[in-house]
Amino acid sequence: MTTIEEKIIPYIPGDGVGQEIWQASQNVFDAAITKAYNGEKKIVWQEILAGEKSFNETGEWLPEATLDAIHAAKIAIKGPLTTPVGGGIRSINVTLRQKLDLFACVRPVRYFDGVPSPVKEPEKTDMVIFRENTEDVYAGIEFAIDDPKTKKIIDFLQNELDVTNIRFPETSGIGIKPISKEGSQRLVYAAIEYAIKQGRKSVTLVHKGNIMKFTEGGFKSWGYEVAENSFSDATFTMRQFDDIKATDGLKTAQNALKAAKEAGKVIINDVIADNFLQQILLYPERYDVVATTNLNGDYISDALAAQVGGIGISPGANINYHTGYAIFEATHGTAPDIAGLGKANPSSLLLSGVMMFEYLGWQEAADLITSAIETALINKQVTSDFASQLNDATLLTTQEFGDHLITLLNK
Ligand code: ATP
């Protein structure tokens, strides 16, 4: 008798286009699993509430029961959520990440043949971004211009800490940027471990440490420290390169770098964030895995997504590699302008599902979905976001696109 492996996965369809992209995606997920495992593996989908739908049904944007379900299953998948209006939670996405301490926001960015892109050689972009998810100015420690606490903080800075360079102390808002050694190192550790496991060539630490020395600069040096202390056999850092150069000269350092590459070691380097935004446009082929702080990661993820065809196709995952908790999610917003019209591209959610199956070790199902998407895009059988930019495309609705993928993966 064959035993069936059943996995309970909580899901949040999401607001706006969420419902339609979820429906199309769930059908594709189920079809891929049936095809890959012949009924021996199965997902039991468990809907959980968050966002507008939740607020309308329960009066709460993020009910405790939702968090309990994610705790129990350890993983979940979700569509986009409306940002709550009026008090309480600032952002459901940020709250979920904080409550579950999902410290790594992982965004693979690759090009699919056939996708319209604004750059000449989009196929040169193939990176995986690890964005720190819990610290930085995103921690939400902010005080408004008219908040009495702001005056207290400014007085404290000026009177106790001898700060003299707040340009307009009477009319400032204040934001605090905490970046810790612990937070930086767990993120960089995850990025390096991923690079080693996936046979990637380099990990680039992206920071603005030339200006913010003790936060962004700290991220860079703590990152190098992780590589040198925890992965000394499998990595070679550009900080080691500089040390060798200082003691034994450039030639010896270059030879050491060459030897490390030949030995298949992961090269750890760093780039200043503004330069990095130029580099990814000019020389995307030079970068592989990227580890960065929260705000830099926000900008870089969107810039890179645009390079390979944009928002409808970029997947994401928020992961705590220590506890195993993970939420896989479409990276775009609720797209209210096209909601309910069958125009939304479900690929961002579908590819987030691919990441989820890979995380579960269900590689066969993941591969079936990826190759069906590749085929549909090459054949220009696409949703309206791409159809409007391509000649001779076959325009499909969200649901038709999902159904078409099912036909393709069953071939
Ligand atoms: P929110 O307020 O939830 O962030 P938004 O509309 O401001 O929503 P996005 O949802 O990210 O931000 O949308 C930005 C643009 O990209 C919109 O024009 C939207 O229609 C388009 N877009 C977003 N997601 C998709 C998708 N899955 N397929 C096609 N177009 C999309």
UniProtKB/TrEMBL annotation:
Keyword hit for Protein biosynthesis: no
Residue numbers bearing the Phosphoserine modification: S91
Catalytic class of the enzyme: oxidoreductase
Keywords, comma-separated and alphabetical: Glyoxylate bypass, Magnesium, Manganese, Metal-binding, NADP, Oxidoreductase, Tricarboxylic acid cycle
Keyword flag Oxidoreductase: yes
Entry-annotated residues carrying N6-acetyllysine: K120
Cofactor binding notes: Binds 1 Mg(2+) or Mn(2+) ion per subunit.
Enzyme Commission number: 1.1.1.42
Positions annotated to bind NADP(+): T82, N345
Cofactor(s) annotated in UniProt: Mn(2+); Mg(2+)
Modified positions (N6-succinyllysine) in chain numbering: K78, K220
Binding site for D-threo-isocitrate: S91, N93, R97, R107, R131
Known catalytic reactions: D-threo-isocitrate + NADP(+) = 2-oxoglutarate + CO2 + NADPH
Annotated GO MF terms: isocitrate dehydrogenase (NADP+) activity; magnesium ion binding; NAD binding
One Pfam family of this chain: Iso_dh
SUPFAM superfamilies: Isocitrate/Isopropylmalate dehydrogenase-like
Residues that, per the record, bind Mg(2+): D298
A GO BP entry: tricarboxylic acid cycle
Superkingdom classification of source: Bacteria
Its job: Catalyzes the oxidative decarboxylation of isocitrate to 2-oxoglutarate and carbon dioxide with the concomitant reduction of NADP(+).
Family affiliation: Belongs to the isocitrate and isopropylmalate dehydrogenases family.
Record-given protein name: Isocitrate dehydrogenase [NADP]
Organism of provenance: Enterococcus alcedinis
Gene: icd
